[in-house]
Amino acid sequence: MLTEEIADAIELTAKLMELHGENQFKVKALAAAAFRLSKTHMDLSGKTLEELEAMEGVGKSIAGKILELQETGTTKELETIKAKTPAGLIDVMDVKGLGPKKVALLWKELGIESVGELLYACNENRLITIKGFGAKTQEEVKKNIEFKSQNQNKFHYAFASQIGNNFIKAISVKLPGILISFTGALHRKCEVVDTIDILVEEEHFEKINDFAVKQPYPFVIHSSPAENFYYNLVVGSSTDAHIQLTGMLDLPEQEQGSEEEVYDDLQLQYIEPELREGLTEVSLAEKNEIPKLIEFTDLRGSLHNHSTYSDGVSTLKEMALECKSLGYEYFGICDHSQTAVYAGGLKPETILIQQKEIDKLNSELGPFKILKGIESDILGDGSLDYTEDILKTFDFVVASIHQGFKMDEERATNRLIKAIENPYTKILGHPTGRLLLARPGYPIDHKKVIDACAANGVAIELNAHPYRLDVDWRWIPYCIEKNVMVSINPDAHATAGFHDMYYGTCAARKGMLTKEFCLNSLGLKEIEEWFKKK
Asked: Which domains can be identified in the chain, with CATH numbers?
């Protein structure tokens, strides 16, 4: 091993020992030795134990570790302490500004075990609830995580599209009228993308590519002759399976003025970019049976939102007023329930206070209406964390799992089904608990869960937060088959969070969701009747 690698291994040992609260004198000795070794360019290979011991700040114990590292590439001590540490915590300790002690607090108090979970906690304003963390620290941690993620060349669609749109706007200002568009996975609005692919006119390729390589993000610029731009856009934004099923590579070369014209020439119903995955879209297009996909403008209300009553950063009134200003008919407040102590979950007495405020605001804001909801934690046995006399005071209940993620498929499925069967559950929240690029979510039998929703008149959530997008859009066709409504919920913790419903709509369109099967496409009176019908 190189001296730098040995230093890194000893430093990691020190950090993990500090994380677990082990002997501070030993921690300091290891950290000091690692620091000295990292600053020396001395070649340690071939040195005897005695020679290593004679080095300043090393000593017998650390000299032994150096020899062990040279022989095996690790140490028993390091492997032992790594075995009792969630692997993701090591990455969390690499986030600038977080030392082992702060990471230990995040782990013990918020259950954070990965960088993705930490980023999500920052967005939900949870770090400031812990002693030693303020709003500035939280924002700095968030920025450092995003910087680190960018260098890993995987991006949430929301982030990549924002960066890409800014790039396209800059180009369009410099070159008015230029043909330019997203292509690849970004044009299909995939949940996660590796690169920001952009198609431009061949004439301007070199100038735009030179501009792109100077950006701090992985832009990939593709070029096309202007007369074949839309054909190449369709090809470039399609999976190989979609290309093969349509036979578009065999299409005679001809000029098209839009993506729609490409499919006209293929004698197919137009297939939206989101659908070009090579699944059922081509066979449906051949029969002209692709339904009219849901539009963002079809949404008439926002359900599953938080306020300062729990872990939100905007007050109930601020959230309601913003929702109304966006043109929605209703706003569902679903603060966290009492089990979610880490998120300031509502005790029964606080629920009464909140509901009185809701009544007052509704008298002022009508016909716009705040619907009384709660995001009730699903406990380990599948029950909800309030008694019936509390649950019946709400207009609707979103039932979600927030703790106890380490379950096998059978246990996780049964836990969800029991919650679905609760007569007060109206919506099943983020059913797998996944966090894109961070946590895969607990395994569930989606068909059994959706079947249970069908049997009990429960809607399933498509959590629109771009880190979640859960339920996965690939299960939406089965929801529709079983007549299960899908609710596109922003899970907003601040007024800006309402805009995440756009990303939920993008994911819903990939699953061919129509407004008829979207719960919050119902008007106020319709959704109140639906909640009562359950």
From this structure: 3-150 (1.10.150.110), 155-286 (3.30.460.10), 296-533 (3.20.20.140)
